[in-house]
Amino acid sequence: MKNSLLIGRLAGIRIFLHWTFLLLLGFLVFAEVRRGSDSGAVLTSVGFVLALFACVVLHELGHSLMARRFGIGTRSITLLPIGGLATLERMPEKPRQELLVALAGPAVNVAIALVLYPFVAPLGAFEGIGLSHGTVGLGFLTALFWVNVMLVVFNAIPAFPMDGGRVLRALLAMRLGRPRATAIAAGLGKLIAVGFVFYGLFNAPFLVLIGIFVYFGAHTENVSVQHRELLRDYTAGHAMLTNYLTLAPTDTMQQAANTLLAGSDQDLLVLDPAGQAVGVLTRPLLMAALRDNRLTTPVQEVMSREFETVEIGDSLTTVYARALRQPNAFFPVLENQQLRGIIDQTNLTEFLTIRAALSH
Ligand SMILES: [Zn+2]
């Protein structure tokens, strides 16, 4: 993740700290000092937040290690001030697997709470819930115990894509299928997210951030699942553009600019005399060359030679997933090494719009 600091590895997974997390620690120290706390209290406070986030890392590790059992790797775990985020290579699509992966995180906090319980019970853990300084003073472990209990309770809220929401989606998917289950879980997730924002505005500002995070998370994941469903039975050959403009490696930038004007294509494919794709002249590359007044420079000196291709028989869901990973997807479509068409972001979107219209 961008703007993050690598702090170490656990079970081979890189753990990152988002820079805003340092802001949180700084704010905490500032608040303590302003309150007139001595250095011991400041250290306890900082130590507590670090212990809390260690529990969050272990929670995320629970998700990651369960996912690993199903052959799904984890790119990284990132700590944000509002919680942790394990970036799995993909989400498990089988409901039973998603259920177990979602449960594995909170299960870690249950285990931590159980381990802490014998230490906190004699201290009167049940007399006062809360993270006031009185409680921290009462006992570091007591407060940590309650934090883990709260993590379990909070994650049980069925606000997709939070853990409880994933459990709900997985359970619904067993009966209704994944697209329908996701639509319902995402709808409920958005509703609860709006609740978080309104409640948070007056009571707990961090809940506003979580609400926004949940709302957009639910939206994005639902759109992606519905899109995959629409694309499920199709291949690259169904969606590719067959009417497109191309350039020769020896064409000049002036000719490239004229070609761009003649059509609506954003990127232009460069073909050698044998008709093989040898490069892509993207719009930004062309514009940069024009700004430098390189009107007579041949295309082959400016074009990008690094481009991904897809096979005509590739499933569109795979192509869609690959397109999501890059800002301006542009894939030549090949059949037996021969160029048959092009797929880009625009015509993928058009194909989706048409499928959505026809499916109603
Ligand atoms: Zn979780």
From TrEMBL:
InterPro entries: CBS_dom (IPR000644), CBS_dom_sf (IPR046342), Peptidase_M50 (IPR008915), UCP006404_Pept_M50_CBS (IPR016483). One of its GO terms (biological process) is proteolysis. GO terms for cellular component: plasma membrane. Keywords: CBS domain, Cell membrane, Hydrolase, Membrane, Metal-binding, Metalloprotease, Protease, Repeat, Transmembrane, Transmembrane helix, Zinc. Binds 1 zinc ion per subunit. The keyword Ion transport does not apply. Its cofactor is Zn(2+). Gene3D superfamilies: CBS-domain. The keyword Zinc applies. GO terms for molecular function: metal ion binding; metallopeptidase activity. The chain crosses the membrane at residues 41-59, 99-120, 140-160. It is a multi-pass membrane protein. SUPFAM superfamilies: CBS-domain pair (SSF54631). It is found in: Cell membrane. Residues 240-297 form the CBS domain. Its main location: membrane. Zn(2+) binds at H59, H63, D163. The active site is at E60. It comes from the Bacteria. Belongs to the peptidase M50B family. This is Zinc metalloprotease. It comes from Hymenobacter arizonensis (Siccationidurans arizonensis).
